[in-house]
Amino acid sequence: MSRKPAATRKPVKTTAPPAPKKPRASRGNAWFQQHQAVAVDSLSRMLAEPGSSLLTWAVIGIAMALPVCLLLFLQNFRQLNTSLEEAGNISLFMQYDISRVELEAVAREIEALAGVAGVTLVTADEALAEFQDTSGFGNALDGLDENPLPALVIVRPASDLAADVRELAARMEAMPQVAAAQVDLEWLQRLYAIISLAQRFTVGLAALLALGVVLAIGNTVRLAIENRRDEILVVKLVGGTDAFVSRPFLYTGIWFGVGGGLFAAIVALLAFFLLAGPFARLMALYDSDFTLTGLTASDLLLLLVVAGALGLSGAWLSVLRHLRRIEPA
Amino acid sequence: MIRFDHVSKRYPGGFEALLDVDFQLGEGEFAFLTGHSGAGKSTLLKLIMLMEKASAGQVFVNGQNLNRMPRRQLPYFRRNIGVVFQDHQLLFDRNVFENVALPLQVAGYNSHDAARRVRAALDKVGLLKKENQNPVALSGGEQQRVGIARAVVNKPVLLLADEPTGNLDPDLSAEIMNLFELFSQVGTSVLVATHDLELINRQRHRVIKLDQGRLVADGTDGGGKP
Question: B123 to chain A, minimum CA–CA distance in Å?
């Protein structure tokens, strides 16, 4: 592109009408320059009224804090899940007189059964060693003549439905080599079901609150549009496109969203700070070193991006509805 | 530059603001548009700016038929027209420089080119020294000149003015008129709506006179007289 079309400098005595659509002066970066200026301007307008801006950020932030906290909590729970995965397994206690060879044969037989995802063999000796390690009766057990523990086959069921697992356990209990079958910790399975319910609930809640945030920002932007009505009229009169007129309001929406996101992050961090101590004590009681994971840097980034996007959509809705109606007349 | 082809404008409610108006304004031509208040001067200007659409007939500006202009094209069309308002329509949340820069900003000029043009326009209206002031601090005549600088900063092919001297004393009015003449001398078409007969009679220009929406006189014979 030439620097400045000569036509605009010389006395305007042209016969052909200038092409209306050609951007007459743009050195590539003008567009970027303008976006930057508008972004900075809408932010500084917001900061010029800290009281009302803070209030808006708080409203948006609180609405977002709730699902953020719930999602973080569930994320932590999911990690807890994986550390307790064997909880849904079936323990098969073998007859005492079973030999090592028979044990391995029976394990293979069980592994081939329908509904079995995997098996783990624990010989009587291994079981004893583990019991000595973990129970605290180590020395007392040394005094025993023979191993009181049976060999164990731990079966991981393919299904996690309680009915399936129980049916599988009953089938295996009927095998002659098996003395008893025990389904571990059914309560934990129920807990998983509750958690997955809670996850659904949280997602639904988040969607609802996101809609609320979009509408709240849309309304705030509507007020901003009303406040700058005169300016909009003048800009339209001197040839501002819809995009140009919309831009400051779209940025306003983004800043409202991002500010609200930051607020939500602060609330979530605070909540986790307050919960971390009691939670650690609770885990200590269960002999677990599991700790709460708070908001990571990438979580924060994601939160701000989502918040900004919500703000943008709210502003966009408002701009679509209200900006078109302001026409010079 | 402007061609009205049997144009009528009827507002909702039945009021006929313009009736069968027919005229042309050439490139670089200077004309006054006059008539009593309510005669249709503002409506005529609004039709040229596409703030209103004609109910009948056709309006051509700069070779474009305004009846057929899609909404998307409107902003680009308006960039070719400078408008001066009686109440100057300046924005008081920014200084003089930024007010004048608005049309350039809208048209996507980068700040370097824009600054050069803004200063040139302010120089022309004699306000270069006041570029950093808020327009609210300026006198009525100065505010009007800022409005003119904003109207011409983009080098429009057509300059419209709606009662530009309405609030000004005769000396200031004459000053403003001289500015308009300067622009018409460099090839800009100028159409000034006014009911200031003294002003019109002082300058020998074409006068287009409206009365109750009809064009009743068109010529250089001092349309100010009845």
Answer: 16
